[in-house]
Write a structure and sequence with these properties.
The complex is a heterodimer of chains A (about 375) and B (about 575). Chain A is of the alpha+beta class and about 375 residues long. Chain A contains 8 helices and 20 strands. Helices cover about 25% and strands about 35% of the residues of chain A. Chain B has about 575 residues and is mainly alpha-helical. In chain B, α2 crosses α13 and α22 packs antiparallel against α25. The chains are: A alpha+beta (about 375), B mainly alpha (about 575).
Chain lengths: ~375, ~575
């Protein structure tokens, strides 16, 4: 549907702001380089203040980068104003024009492109059908639910057939259930339209569900970039491991290695690990253990003492002390399993394939 | 760190928008030429004479006993009026927010808050003289006092207080509504008496607001020209002294120096009010009331307050009613029956009333849309855009609020009568309709801008950004998104500008040439001469026009103004 899918490239982009309190300059985005493939769905993920929205607004043209150059479809666009860029944005607050009805909201950009009335009408009705708002074109925006307003905002951006579609936390004002169904919808529409999309969110499950690629940002720099699987299974830093999903960090030392496998000294014992990558023998490292990839059992790799045992329906929620450190374990489908009570001594058991080792000692 | 690229790009993006750049340049030129330049020329005039820079002019005016008296007079009046207005305003506001005000009393309050808006500034002076003067209806015919002197200090104080307290009342009403009732309930719960709650919670919270109201009134009072002119008698204030220095003594340089003195006083007050008190008021009273307030129903509180407020309100209304009635008496003070319309007839047959109304009406009608549009553009730029010179635009348009009309008038005389910097450039506009329209615009600009700014702050920035993002240029965004969303503010700005223009006198009286007859100037003239019936007839028609336009505005808002509803949703 899009005239032309466009890729986006950021080359050494920085944005500097003044701290309103201390009046000191700081980097909101620092020396960030990205390459976004045409037609892909990419998410900028990170906590508030990590620079993800600033990055998006620089691509849209609302902010100007202090360093670096942004390319859209191979063309540098730094000097273009937002209205001259081939981007369309879906805003967090939807930003529908409250004095227009749905039709006029969606037609606003088309009218500016000097299309004839009949074409506009056809395009608007087609796009409203695509987002599931057929027959509602005469409604005013304040007669719509949050989800419907979101669809109008999406339709309004899509109808312009932009080279890149930008999303600024579009689902954050919706309730939890609607959020889940809307994100499926957004993904479906993006696939159908075959459009490049850049999506900003702080919600990791949204990022997982939507993206071809996730870019995790921390304090203005890219912490990691990769497919959802890469990010989840092979986090390259403690920050990423902790931000995407839950993770336990256990500190120890890599005592021997053989290619990608090795042995780690941890909590007074030795355990075999995989995926040690380039970590040198004899250096401190952290074991990243996802709560769902381990169980409490009568035998296993790590001795522990159960400090919390709580039935949550689909899983049993445990907390256990390992060498004085609290480890979270979620044991799914506990109906027929032995349940360990608080105070019991037990072991944590996991498959060496399911864990991940990071160089350095975790702070957590 | 290199912020320069970002700044350079922002600049380039701005330059890619010729409408925007032109608007900003024109705006800055306008503000410089018609607000800054006239004030600057006053400074130049008063320091620079016969080729040298000196303080001679200031020495000269400071040596005039009449000028020194005018300063103390002005400050005395301003001080007292400020206190009285804040006090009465607070009483009214407290009454409305804390005590149940029903039916008639509520109606009275609404009328009282409305009257000063729609009436020309000196109406109260007229009625004061007619009711309490030597031949006053009340003093002579009711009380039998034959030598009551209303002219002078007390006359000005009473008239100004009655004129300005409704402004304080509206300010306090807003503040009191923002006090969370649970604060007071907590104090009451801990054992404070009703008076204790007022003294220990309500009043301290309001304190910066009271200071604010006092200073706003103070500035209004010392800038007021019309009332001291009519009811001041020999009691001269700065505004009237400056006027007389020009029109009577033809001492333009002296008047310029005096204007500088007056300007310094108002600017100082304005600075304190704007930068110190306003932020404090906002800091102490931020939140919205969490729920409705339990109104005081204690009869020992409600009855005296109701009586007090109703009497004051009735008195104010009586003062205003006196004007149209006065215009219908055959001879005010001597012959009251039968009621007649002969004065209204004379306005048109003998005193060129039609031309006066036409001139005032047309000039104001041209000025109003210009003002409204200009103030909306300024608000838009200030609230929604980033560019160099934004601070200048904001500061200068707010500065105009602190400039008394008389000062501006003298500035225009000095600045434009011989052309720019006395070089003859632009000298054509002096004495023309254009300069009168410009004065109207400049005088109403700050009010319009302020209301525009607060309206725009309530609109989510991303609404305009989305339009921009969809491909609209900034002019298109302003016309199709911004303006429709602040329609109400625009409409009320339009009417306020019209009303302010058609009732303006202080600056205009110095600039008007015989070629134009303005109603306010006519009223002032007849009041000066003692032809009160004619003055009243003029004033009554003027009030009708202004009230009519306010009604029209309310009607228009009802049918076309949807923006408030949208913003609230």
């Amino acid at each position: 549907m899009a005239k032309e899918k466009k890729g986006v490239r950021l080359e050494h982009i920085s944005k500097i702001y003044k701290d309103p309190k201390t009046h000191k300059d700081f980097y909101a985005v620092h020396d960030t380089s990205l390459e976004i493939e045409p037609g892909s769905f990419v998410t900028l993920l990170g906590p508030s203040g990590c620079g993800k929205t600033t990055t998006l607004r620089m691509i849209a043209g609302f902010e100007s980068p202090d360093e670096g150059e942004i390319y859209l479809g191979g063309e540098p666009i730094n000097e273009l104003t937002p209205n001259k860029r081939d981007t369309a944005m879906v805003f967090q607050s939807y930003a529908l024009l409250p004095h227009y009805n749905i039709f006029d909201n969606v037609a606003y950009g088309l009218k500016l492109r000097k299309m004839d009335k009949e074409t506009i009408r056809k395009k608007v009705l087609d796009i409203l059908k695509l987002v599931g708002l057929e027959g509602m074109e005469a409604r005013m925006t304040n007669q719509l639910s949050g989800g419907q307003q979101q669809r109008v905002a999406l339709a309004r951006a899509l109808v312009l057939e932009p080279g890149v579609l930008l999303f600024d936390e579009p689902l954050s004002n919706l309730d939890a259930k609607l959020r889940v169904s809307m994100r499926t919808e957004i993904r479906r529409i993006q696939q159908e339209a075959g459009i490049t999309a850049i999506y900003v969110t702080h919600d990791q499950s949204e990022a997982m569900a939507l993206s071809d690629k996730i870019i995790v940002m921390e304090k203005g720099v890219v912490a990691q970039m990769g497919t959802p699987q890469e990010i989840y299974y092979h986090p390259q830093s403690e920050f990423v491991a902790d931000f995407i999903g839950e993770a336990n960090f256990l500190c120890g030392t890599l005592v021997s290695r053989d290619g990608d496998r090795g042995e780690m000294e941890l909590a007074g014992g030795r355990i075999s690990v995989e995926g040690v990558g380039t970590i040198d023998q004899g250096t401190p490292c952290s074991l990243v253990l996802r709560p769902e990839s381990a169980v409490i059992a009568e035998e296993g790799q790590l001795p522990c003492e159960v400090t919390l045992s709580c039935f949550m329906g689909s899983y049993q929620n445990y907390e256990a002390l390992v060498d004085g450190k609290t480890v979270k374990i979620t044991d799914f489908n506990p109906k027929h399993k032995r349940i360990f009570e608080v105070g019991e001594k037990a072991f944590i058991r996991f498959d060496p394939n399911d864990i991940h080792v990071l160089a350095g000692v975790a702070e957590k | 760190m290199a912020t320069s690229q970002g700044a350079a790009l922002d600049r380039k993006k701005l330059m890619a928008d010729p409408v925007m750049v032109t608007t900003i340049v024109v705006l800055i030129a306008f503000l410089t030429l018609f607000i800054l330049y006239p004030l600057a020329i006053l400074l130049v005039d008063s320091f620079y004479g016969e080729g040298t820079v000196s303080l001679d002019t200031f020495r000269r005016i400071m040596a005039m006993p009449s000028f020194l008296r005018a300063i103390t007079n002005t400050l005395k009046v301003g001080f007292l009026v400020g206190i009285l207005s804040a006090g009465i305003g607070l009483l009214f506001a407290y009454m409305e927010v804390y005590v149940r005000v029903g039916g008639i009393v509520g109606g009275l309050f609404k009328v009282v808050s409305m009257l000063p808006v729609v009436s020309p500034p000196f109406v109260l002076s007229l009625s004061m003289i007619m009711l309490f003067g030597k031949a006053g209806l009340i003093t002579r015919h009711v009380l039998g006092i034959y030598d009551n002197n209303v002219y002078g200090f007390w006359g000005i104080v009473i008239v100004q207080t009655l004129t300005f307290f409704p402004v304080c009342y509206m300010m306090f009403k807003g503040l009191l509504k923002n006090i969370d009732p649970s604060l007071e309930e907590a104090a009451r719960d801990m054992g404070a008496s009703r008076w204790g709650v007022f003294a220990s919670v309500t009043l301290p919270l309001l304190l910066p607001g009271i200071g604010n109201a006092f200073l706003v009134t103070f500035i209004e009072s010392i800038a007021d020209f019309a009332n001291p002119m009519i009811i001041g008698g020999s009691y001269d204030t700065l505004a009237t002294t400056i006027y007389l220095q020009i029109t009577g003594a033809y001492d333009k340089q002296g008047a310029a120096a005096m204007a500088v003195v007056l300007l310094c006083i108002t600017l100082l007050m304005f600075a304190v009010q704007k930068y110190y008190l306003e932020s404090k008021t906002a800091a102490t009273l931020t939140g919205k009331a969490s729920r409705a307030r339990m109104l005081i129903e204690d009869k020992s509180v409600t009855i005296p307050l109701t009586i007090l407020c109703s009497l004051s309100a009735l008195f104010v209304i009586l003062m205003y009613i006196c004007v149209p009635i006065g215009a219908c008496f055959p001879t005010w003070g001597y012959k009251f029956t039968p009621l007649t319309f002969k004065w209204f007839g004379q306005v048109f047959s003998k005193y060129k009333g039609l031309k006066a109304f036409k001139d005032s009406f047309v000039l104001s009608l041209i000025a109003a849309p210009l003002t409204a549009l200009l103030s909306m553009i300024i608000s838009y730029l200030v609230v929604k855009r980033r560019f160099k010179g934004k601070g200048f635009i904001e500061a200068v348009s707010m500065l105009a609020m602190a400039v008394p009309g008389t000062v501006l008038g003298v500035g225009y005389i000095r600045g434009f009568s011989g052309g720019l910097f006395h070089t003859g450039i632009l000298s054509g506009i002096y004495g023309s309709a254009a300069i009168l329209i410009i004065v109207f615009v400049v005088r109403s600009l700050p009010t319009g801008t302020r209301s525009g700014i607060s309206a725009l702050r309530q609109i989510d920035k991303s609404i305009e950004e989305s339009a921009y993002d969809m491909g609209a240029g900034s002019f298109h965004v302003f016309m199709t998104v911004t303006l429709p969303l602040i329609k109400d503010s625009f409409l009320s700005g339009l009417v306020t500008a019209f009303v302010r223009s058609i009732t303006a006198i202080s600056a205009i009286i110095l600039l008007v040439t015989p070629q134009f007859l303005l109603i306010t100037v006519q009223i002032n003239e007849f009041a000066e001469k003692g032809s009160y019936s004619i003055a009243c007839a003029f004033a009554s028609i003027l009030i009708l026009i202004t009230y009519g336009s306010v009604l029209l505005m309310e009607l228009l808002m009802k049918f076309f103004g949807t923006s408030r509803k949208i913003v609230e949703d």
